[in-house]
Structures are given as structure tokens and as C-alpha cells.
Specification:
Helix content is about 30%, strand content about 20%. It is globular, with a radius of gyration of 16 Å. It has four helices and six strands. The chain is α/β, with parallel strands linked by helices and about 140 residues long. The protein has a single domain, classed as Aldolase class I (TIM Barrel), CATH 3.20.20.70. The strands form two sheets. Strands 3-4-5-6 form a four-stranded parallel sheet, with helices on one face.
Length: about 140
């Protein structure tokens, strides 16, 4: 069991699988140049999963997959399946901007994803476009 210095049980893990995103939201990716991490410096899903197993074995009960935008990372459904197969009862969720969800929803569910949190800045097309700097609705 993981316990912090204040005696609180840590049972939640948030994993950012990429810093990349298909939007350029003003609050997240300003107009200044963005430094991309070279592929060889990014952990593979297998490397991440080694840590995930330790965390689950240590008492983690909830995992949220985030990014950037996690659906731009190739093979995300395979990573989710690794986790779900290892711990079928884990509360496994994903945060997404929803843009690619129609392409991945079924595969994510079949892989074992339990919940999705969709970030949505506005339902007004002009405001959403201003924020994301692209037509996102």
C-alpha cells in the first residue's frame, strides 16, 4: 500500500502517454515554439506497463490515461488492454478532447477501458475555434 507523508492512502495513478495533441489550445500550447521529444526518448508502452504493474501491486485501484491527447499515440488501445488484462477490476479511465473518439471508442471499450472524460471548452463553435485554434466542433 502506498501512503504519503500525511498518512493518506495513494490509490490513484495518472499516466500521461504523450505530450502531443491535435489541437493547439491557447492555454496549453501557446504560439511560442513547442519542443517535441524525440521518439527514442519516449517510454514505450511496455516500459510504462512495468511501472503500472508495480503501482497496481502497491495498491493503486484507479488509473487515468491522459496526454496531451492520448488518442494521437499509436497503440493506445494495446496499452489499455495490457492494464485491463493484468488487473481486470481496475478503474481504468481516459481523458480526451474527443476529436478522434469515433475512430477509437469500440477498440477502447474492447480493450477494457471503463470510463472516458471528455474535455470540452465550449459548445459555441466560434469560441471553441478561438480556444483550440482550429475548428474542433
Amino acid at each position: 500500500m502506498l501512503i504519503d507523508k500525511f498518512g493518506r492512502t495513494i490509490d490513484y495513478l495518472r499516466i500521461s502517454v504523450t505530450q502531443r495533441c491535435n489541437f493547439r489550445c491557447r492555454y496549453c500550447m501557446p504560439s511560442t515554439p513547442f519542443n517535441w521529444v524525440p521518439r527514442e526518448n519516449i517510454l514505450s508502452f511496455e516500459e510504462m506497463f512495468l511501472f503500472v504493474k508495480v503501482a497496481i501491486d502497491g495498491g493503486v485501484k484507479k488509473i487515468r490515461i491522459t496526454g496531451g491527447e492520448p488518442l494521437v499515440r499509436k497503440g493506445i488501445e494495446d496499452f489499455i488492454k495490457m492494464i485491463a488484462d493484468y488487473a481486470p477490476d481496475i478503474d481504468l479511465a481516459l481523458t480526451t478532447n474527443g476529436y478522434y473518439l469515433k475512430n477509437y471508442a469500440r477498440a477502447l471499450k474492447n480493450a477494457g477501458l471503463k470510463r472516458i472524460n471528455m474535455s470540452l471548452d465550449s459548445l459555441r463553435p466560434e469560441r471553441a475555434k478561438f480556444i483550440a485554434q482550429r475548428g474542433v466542433l
